[in-house]
Amino acid sequence: MKLRLLYRIALWATICGVLAVIIDFGFTFSQTPQVFFNDFYFLVISIGIVASVSRYIQRKSLLRSKVVFFDLLSFIFTLWVLYVFLFKGNVHDSVDHLFRSSHWIKLAIFISFIREFSELNISYSGTRLKPAQVFILSFMGIILAGAFLLLLPRATHHGISFLNALFTSTSAVCVTGLIVVDTATYFTPFGQTIIGLLIQVGGLGILTFASYFSYFFKGGASYENQLALSDMTSNKMGQVFNTFKYILITTFLIEGFSGMLIYFSLPASFGNIDERIFFAGFHAISAFCNAGFSTLSNSLYESGFNTNYFLQLIIIFTF
Questions:
Q1: How confident is the model at residue 94 (pLDDT cuts 50, 70, 90)?
Q2: Which among 293, 73, 109 is positioned nearest to 197, based on CA atoms?
Q3: What is the sign, positive or negative, of the torsion defined by CA atoms of 162, 166, 168, 169?
Q4: Closest alpha carbon to 225 in 185, 279, 63, 238
Q5: Which whole number is the average pLDDT over 39-64?
Q6: Sorting pLDDT into bands at 50, 70 and 90, what band is 210?
C-alpha cells in the first residue's frame, strides 16, 4: 500500500515536473524563480529515483526484463545530473561546453515522466468510443496541446494569435507543410523545437509512442488493448507491438543517419555547433515525416542552400 502511494506521488511529481519545464522554457524569469525551479527539479528527480529502486525491490522479475537496461542507463544519467547539480553549483558553471547546459536536468525530468507514465494501466477498450474515434481524438488532443505551447511568450519573437498557432500546430501534426507565418523568423528556437516535436508525434502517432512504451516497460499488454490497437492499425493482434517497435527503430535510425549527413553537408560558416545540430535534426525529422517545414525562410531555395546538391540529395532520400 505504501509503495503504491509512492508510485502515485512519483507520477504526479513527474507530471508537475514536466509542467514546470514547459513554464520554465515558455516564460522569462528572474534569478529567484529560476533557483526555485532548479530545486524543484532536484526534488522530482530524487522522487523518481526512489520510485524506480523501490519498483525493483518489489518486483525482482524486472531484473530479467529488457527494461533493466533502460532503467540502468537512466539511473546513471540521472545520478550524473544530480552530481553536477549538487557539487558543481549551477549547471551553467561546468567547464565543458557540452555538459554545462541546464537542459540536461530538464531531459532527466522527461525521462522520469516517461518511466512513471508508462506504468499506468491505460485501457483503450475501457471507453464507449470506438478505436477509430480514440485515434482521431489523440490527434486532436496533441494539436490543441501544440497550439497552446506555441502561444507561450518565448515560443515566438513577437507573439502569435490563437488561430495562427492552431493552424501551425495542425499543419505540423498532420504533416501538410502549410504555414501562415514564417517558421524561420516568427518562431524562436523553442517554438521551432515544439513544431519539430509536433511533426515527429504526428508522423508516428501519439498512440504508437504511448502504447509501445507502456508495453516495453510492463513487458506485456492486456488482450483488450491489443485488440483495440489491432483495430486502429489494421495489424494482426499478435503483431501490433512488434510493428510499433520496428516503426520506432526504423524511424529513429533513418532520422539519426540523415541528421548526421545533413550536419556534415552544411558549410563551415553556418552557425555554431548547437545551431548546426538543431538544423540537422529539424530537417531530418521534417523530411522523413514528409512535413515540408523548414527553419529557412525560403526553405531549400535559400541563398547558399539552393546549390547545395549534397544536402538536397540527403533530403530526397530521407523523403
A1: very low
A2: 293
A3: positive
A4: 238
A5: 81
A6: low
Q: Tell me how long the chain is.
A: 319
Q: Give the mean pLDDT of the chain.
A: 80
Cell output for 51: 520510485
* Cα–Cα distance for residue pair 47/289, rounded to 1 Å: 36
Q: Can you tell me whether residue 185 is helix, strand or coil?
A: helix
- State phi, psi for 227 to the nearest 5 degrees: -65, -45
Q: How far apart are CA 192 and CA 155, in angstroms?
A: 8
What does the pLDDT average to over 275-286? 94
| Cα-based distances in Å from 214 to 206, 228, 300, 302 | 12, 15, 39, 42
Phi, psi of 156 (to 5 degrees): -130, 165
Do the Cβ atoms of 291 and 175 come closer than 8 Å?
yes
d(CA 130, CA 228): 8
Is residue 211 pLDDT above 70, yes or no?
no
Cell of 15: 507530471
Sign of CA pseudo-dihedral 119, 246, 110, 196: negative
